[in-house]
C-alpha cells in the first residue's frame, strides 16, 4: 500500500473539502484505488476516470487525473468512447449501485459483453445516498429506505453474478473494511486486459445505517466483516424488521476474485480484437 | 471537383464526415438513418477510425462525447425516436462543451410514427429538446450536395465553438440519389488547444470568443469535466454568479460565431411581392413553385435558411421587407412558422402550407396557397 503522502499526490487538494459524509467509506475505497494506480505504475497523465451520478461518482472530482463526471448511469458509454478513441489511456469507471445497476444497467452489461478494456468500480451501499436514502436495486429484502418505508420487498441484484453472465472477464468483490485486500484487487483489475468489474461493499451511515439502526460508519464496516460480508445481515437481528426470519437469511456473498478469463478485447478498429 | 456521380443523401453525409476528419462513430440502427452507420462501419476502420454500435442512442452520444474529450472528431446519426433519447447527452455536450456532430434524419412522428416517411417535425426539438436554457446550432440541407457541404460545416462549427452541432434533414433527402460532383478537398477546422503549461491551465477559461481551449485526455493536461454548473477550474460550483456567467457565456459564444454559423439562401427576392419561406426538402418544391409562378408572371421569391438555429432573425426580416405576403411551407403543423411570425411581427400577412401526413409538399399546393391568400399573386 502506498503511503498517505504518495496518495495525496494524486488528489486535487484545491478541490477540498470533499462532499462525502462523516463515516462514509467511499474515501477508503478511493484511497485503495489510488494506491493501486501507483502500484501498477500508471502515468497520471495517461489515466482517465469516468463517473456517473451519485455520492461515489462525485469522488472522481478529487482525483488528479483526467476525470469526467458524466450523466446518471451512462459513465460506461463515455468511458468506452475515451478508451476506443485513445487506446493508450488507462480508463476506469466509478459508479454506485443505483447508477450502475438501475439507470445504467444496460450500459454496464454491454460494456462487459464487448469486453472493452475498462476497470469498473461499483460502490455498493445498498441505497441512493445523494438523493436522500431511496431504495436501490441492491437494497436487501426487509431493509428500510425512504421509498421502502415498510421494508424493501424486491429481490436485490447480485452484481458480480450479473457481470459474469454478461461477459466481464475479471470480476471481483471486496469490502471497504479491508482496504489492503481492496488495493490488491484494484491492482489486479487495472492490470487485467478486458472489462474488469469490482464490486465494493461500502456503507451509508447517513441513510441506510440510520434508517436501519445499524450504527455509525465504523460499526457498519465492522458488521460487514462480522456478518459474512453482507451489509444487511445484521438487519436480521433487528426486531424492527419482521419480514426476515433467521432461517430465511440471505446467504452471505463471496469475496475475492470470482472470475477471470481471457477473451478478445473490443477496439472498434481495423484488425479488430487485440 | 471529382467526377459527378449518383450519391444518396445518407452516403453523402458519411463521406462528408470522413472528409471533415471524423474518426469516431458511435450509433444505434434506426430507419431512415442506418445507411450512415453502415457506411461508417465499412469505411472508418479503413482510415484509422473507430466504429462502435452502441446499445442505444443514449450511450451512442455518450461514447461520442467521450471520444471528443479523447481528441477525436466524433459523430452519431439517428432519427426521431433516437433523437429523443439523445436529448440527455445533447444537454451534456452543451454544458461540458464537447465538440460533436449529431445527424437527425427526420421521419414521421410523434413516437414510432411513420419510420419510412419524411417529416420536419423535429425542428423545435432540435432547438429545445434538452432541458434547461441552452443554445443550439442546427443546419438544414436541401439537397444531397448540401448534405455533404453542411455536414462538413457542422464539424467545422463544432470544433470552433465546442458545441454539439445538429444536421437535420428528412427521409426523402436521406434516401434520394442525386448526381453530385464532390469537392476533392474540404476546409476543415481543429479545436483550439491550450497555449499555457499544464500547471497554469484553467480548463473552462474562455478565449476572447467565449470558447475555452480543449486539450485531449492524455495530452498531459489533467482536468475535470462535469455536467454540473462549474467554475473556470471545471469544478462544480453552487455560486449563482458562476452559474449565471456560465449560462450567458454558453449563449454568447454562439452569438460571437454567428457570422460563421448563420447561412441563408435567397432567390428572386428583388421584385418579390410574395416571399416563400421553406427549408430542407420543402425548399426544393418551393424553388419549383417560384419557377412556375414566374412563368405565369407572378413576382414570387424564396428565402431558404440553411441554418435553422440560431434563427436568422435579421436575414429573414430583410428578405420579407417590401413583400405583400409571406408563405411558410413546412412538413409539420407549424413549427418554424412561429419563428417567422415572431420576426415578421405583423408587418406582412403570413400564409402557411403545412403537412403532417408524411407526404412531401407539392409545388402545386404552394401555388394554390398563393392564389388563395393574395389576390393577383398569380396574374
Biggest interface in this structure? A-B, 42 and 48 residues
User: What does the main sheet of chain A amount to?
Assistant: 7 strands, mixed
Widest sheet: strand ordering of chain A: 2-1-3-4-8-7-9
The biggest beta sheet of chain B, please?
8 strands, mixed
Count of discrete alpha- or pi-helical segments spanning 4 or more residues of chain B: 13
Number of strands of chain B: 16
Roughly how much helix do the residues of chain B carry, as a percent range? 25-40%
Principal-axes geometry of chain B comes out as globular
The CATH architecture assignment of the largest domain in chain B turns out to be 3-Layer(aba) Sandwich
Q: Write down the CATH class of the largest domain in chain B.
A: Alpha Beta
Structural category of chain A is alpha/beta
Can you tell me the residue ranges of chain A where pLDDT is under 50 for at least 5 consecutive residues?
238-247
State Rg of chain B.
Answer: 21 Å
Q: Could you tell me how far the N terminus lies from the C terminus of chain B, measured between alpha carbons in angstroms?
A: 42 Å
Shape assignment of chain A: globular
Total E-strand runs of chain A: 9
Mean pLDDT value of chain A: 90
Number of domains of chain B: 2
Name given to the CATH homologous superfamily of the largest domain in chain B? Thiamin diphosphate (ThDP)-binding fold, Pyr/PP domains
Mind sketching the topology for me?
The complex is a heterodimer of chains A (274) and B (379).
Chain A: H1 4-8, H2 26-40, E1 47-51, H3 55-58, E2 66-69, H4 75-85, E3 90-96, H5 97-103, H6 105-114, E4 119-124, E5 127-128, E6 134-135, H7 159-166, E7 170-175, H8 179-191, E8 196-201, H9 205-211, H10 217-226, E9 256-260
Parallel strand pairs in A: 1-2, 1-3, 3-4, 4-8, 7-8
Antiparallel strand pairs in A: 5-6, 7-9
Helix pairs in contact in A: 2-8, 5-6, 6-7
Chain B: E1 5-8, H1 9-19, E2 22-27, H2 34-43, E3 50-53, H3 57-69, E4 73-78, H4 80-96, E5 100-108, E6 114-118, H5 123-128, E7 137-139, H6 144-161, E8 164-170, H7 171-175, E9 177-180, E10 224-226, H8 240-256, H9 258-261, E11 264-267, E12 274-277, H10 281-295, E13 300-305, E14 307-309, H11 313-320, E15 325-330, H12 336-344, E16 350-354, H13 363-373
Parallel strand pairs in B: 2-3, 2-4, 4-5, 5-8, 7-8, 12-13, 12-15, 15-16
Antiparallel strand pairs in B: 1-9, 5-6, 7-14, 11-13
